[in-house]
């Protein structure tokens, strides 16, 4: 049995989550907390295998809880569960030390898989979250990078082109037309003074936008 | 001109005589050099002749000795082998000793019996030389010398023969001969390169010479007739004896090439009768050796002399020409000045005349007669007073003439002349007297100035002055009226008005000014701000005045003045004042009290600030409520609906489908709630700060509008909420404008801090606009941004030009942010 801690300030949400976790069969919710301070306290008391933490909580907020748990129980895998879809939160959470990130909206479908995965020591983040993270890491927190002159959408298209995706695949990923993708591609080539997708890939690699 | 020609001729003559002198000197030197050469050649000839004579006489005595040798006698008298061998030995001995060509012995028939060349191929032994004159002479008992070309040896030689007598016999038994080589002599002649030495026989055949090609040639042409006798003598081989080509002409010798030679001839000597020694020397060589040094030494001297003379002549010529020119121009000037004087008298546009002591005119100028309308004949000899008006005539005769002939001068006497046509003219006459040697006045020289016009002009001027005086009285009245009006305005206006000169000294202040600063207009004239106002006010005034003067244009500033009821704000309009020449002469200031307006403005701003702050607060609360509370509930509902869907999937597909629909509805609701909350106030801004919020917002903007949006940030610290909100809302507004109006393809949002100043810039590459052309609604957008900027203590600037994009700058200092 995987022992799970759930920290969320909404009791109905907590109840829903508990049900999802316990119906999996091999997991058990050992404790619940409705604010950050309590979450830390419960971790100390019940020694769970996995902690599921909401970012927005009164008192100590989720990000703070993660960093405190990092010093308290560095080996405890933390899954961040939140209402926020914005990539900025993902980046912060992962930077703070979370192993996984999930929106509450997708919890019914993904929560069990996510807990299992981080319990095995792997990361769990959605495609979009991974992308946000990659782009943030590539650009660096501050300072000059050749990527600075690119817009977010340009960066996204560049990354996927570099990973070898087709215009069609990229179009459907961002819900834009194939023609628009082509426009972005042409603009990227011109702006970066490159000639083809192969050079785009090399450029993306050099700037740590994709892993070699 | 003539003088100039004479000068040229003289200088030419000087030059000519110098040249002639030079030439004469040169030719006399040449003459003496040639004479010297003649003398040298003569000397040279004599030397050569002496050498030859000595040489040719050399073997005369040895041959005599040889003839006396016993062996030879024996060989001739008893010609057996032993004796012949002895004779040959003797001959060999002599040949060796004398270094002669060959020695040989002939019997009385002329046949050679013994010879030193007996073993050579051209051996003389057995040869008969009886035809040779030297043999003939010797056999007849006399010794002999002879010059000839060897018939056997074909070598030239000097032959010395002597008879050989038997021991007691008186007639010769044979002849002995020593032949010496001529080549030897020739080589010893030692002649020089440019001279030719020749020895020729009586026929003129050249036998010895340092010019080899001429050997056996005939020296002169006419000698050709004697060729048979030359041939017969066998003396010079078999010929042909050609002519050298030399011709004697006028004391000199010419050869075929046209060279000219100097010739000297001498006889060879008594042993060779009629043989001559001839010495030729090229005339060119002589002249070259003699004249070249001559030219080398005298040439430059002559040349220098010529040049010096040339230069001297040139300078003298110039000097003389100058003198001539000066003299001529002086003459011309004198003539001109005489002419000028005459012409001056007649043509001066002034009335000049002279009278004699009786008052009769003796001369008048052209202008005088022209003006008076008379011809000269009609006036000369007449009394001057005949041309006067009656009153002037009396005045002249009774008063002026007696005075003038006493003092000799009069000045500006007013007369009236009468012209021929009866018209009268006013003149002022001045005169001086011309006296003879004794001092008696002989005539006068007078000038009359026509003052008719002047008198008329004076009258007109007087009238004009009167008119002007009337006009200026009118003008003064008008000015007074207007001044009064302006003074009233200045007195009753609530505005403060002053005028100052360029140096800042007051020239005028109005009543309100007097009241405000409690001064009198009359007191402060000529004083500066510093003299009468508190220092802060004076400094304010002065600095804006100075700016007006410097920029030469009007200026609007707010100035603060402490009054008894507190600090007042004045809106001051200041403008330059120009003088007649268009230069700035001073500055005028009009100040209106806007303290009340200012206060109202500040209150409004505060109000607007607090409204905005409250709005943000409320929005934030609602957004949080929506997002956190409603959102969470919806999420929980979604969990349940998914759970239900899972449960019912197998048993009751219709209900399961219902649950799925519910789930989709809830998803849609969550999206809406999230969107609403975000639009009200993004949680990111409060949770993560401005940079993350803008990062999200620009990415979202790009996703929604497909306008590329680049967000750059640098050195941005954690900002307080008011500044973050202002910056965020400004970006929102600016980007909204971009979508609505710009038609841009790209936007850049740049956020950075530099030296405590936060700068936010939004650039687009759209069509831009004319900043003066903002419509009201657009203007409101900008005004809203500016309001937000101002409320946090910052500033907002919008730069745009048609077709050039738009730039929005928000700048705010990060220190001392207002807490509101």
Give the SSE layout.
The complex is a heterodimer of chains A (212) and B (820).
Chain A: E1 2-7, H1 11-22, E2 27-33, H2 36-46, E3 50-54, H3 62-72, E4 78-82, H4 87-96, E5 100-103, H5 107-119, H6 127-139, H7 152-162, H8 167-174, H9 178-192, H10 197-206
Parallel strand pairs in A: 1-2, 1-3, 3-4, 4-5
Helix pairs in contact in A: 2-3, 4-6, 7-9, 7-10, 8-9
Chain B: H1 2-56, H2 60-67, H3 70-77, H4 81-98, E1 102-106, E2 112-115, H5 133-139, E3 144-149, E4 156-165, E5 172-181, H6 182-188, E6 195-200, E7 206-209, H7 227-233, E8 247-249, E9 252-254, E10 260-267, E11 276-282, H8 283-347, E12 351-355, E13 361-364, H9 366-372, H10 376-379, H11 390-407, E14 409-418, E15 424-435, E16 441-450, H12 452-492, E17 496-501, E18 506-509, H13 511-517, H14 521-524, H15 529-532, H16 535-551, E19 555-563, E20 566-578, E21 584-593, H17 595-651, H18 653-680, H19 683-687, H20 690-705, E22 708-714, H21 721-742, E23 746-754, E24 757-764, H22 776-791, E25 795-800, E26 806-813
Parallel strand pairs in B: 22-23
Antiparallel strand pairs in B: 1-2, 1-5, 3-4, 4-5, 6-7, 6-11, 8-9, 9-10, 10-11, 12-13, 12-16, 14-15, 15-16, 17-18, 17-21, 19-20, 20-21, 23-24, 24-26, 25-26
The mean pLDDT of chain B is 84
Major sheet size, sense and barrel closure of chain A: 5 strands, parallel
Instruction: Find the CATH topology of the largest domain in chain A.
Output: Rossmann fold
> What is the tally of helical segments of chain A?
10
Fraction of residues in helix of chain B: 40-55%
Beta-strand percent range of chain A? 5-15%
**CATH classification class of the largest domain in chain B:** Alpha Beta
| First-to-last CA distance of chain B | 113 Å
Q: Uncertain spans of chain A, ≥5 residues at pLDDT below 50?
A: none
Biggest beta-sheet profile of chain B: 6 strands, antiparallel
CATH superfamily label of the largest domain in chain A? Response regulator
Distance between the termini of chain A: 38 Å
